[in-house]
Amino acid sequence: MTDDSTSIEGYEVPLHLSLTEPTLFGGVPREFGILTFVLTMVVALGLRIWWLGFPLGIGVFLVAVILTRRDPYWLPIFRRHLRQPNFLDS
């Protein structure tokens, strides 16, 4: 592993990179990808507005891919932001 004098012999474990990265579905966070797919199918097939549902779903998905490339943790941060109370109401 490493040759540091601070490490204790026998207490180093190799850590796989997939344990530290978020789970992605098509380049976006898994929950957001599934939600986008389901809502796109509801609008396109359920409401029979396919000319609006498919382009809107693809557009939302592409925006989410761009956001995920910039910061893979944008969805948890956005959720945390929405839960924060407003202290400076005017």
Measure the end-to-end span: 56 Å
Order of strands, main sheet, comes to 1-2
Q: Total helix count?
A: 3
Beta-strand percentage range: under 5%
What is the mean pLDDT? 88
Q: In sequence order, what are the helices and strands, one letter per element?
A: EEHHH
Approximate shape = flat
Global Rg: 20 Å
Number of strands: 2
Major β-sheet profile? 2 strands, antiparallel
The secondary structure category is mainly alpha
Q: Helix coverage percent of residues?
A: 40-55%
Parts with pLDDT < 50 across at least 5 consecutive residues:
none
What does this protein look like?
The chain has 90 residues and is mainly alpha-helical. It has helices at 30-46, 50-70, 74-83; strands spanning 24-25, 28-29. The mean pLDDT is 88. A hairpin with a 2-residue loop joins strand 1 and strand 2. It has a domain at 24-82. It has 3 helices and 2 strands; from the N terminus they run ββααα. A two-stranded antiparallel sheet has the order 1-2.
Brief write-up:
The protein is mainly α. Helices cover 53% and strands 4% of the residues.
Write the layout of secondary structure elements.
Layout: E1 24-25, E2 28-29, H1 30-46, H2 50-70, H3 74-83
Antiparallel strand pairs: 1-2
Features:
53% helix, 90 residues, two-stranded antiparallel sheet, single chain, mainly alpha
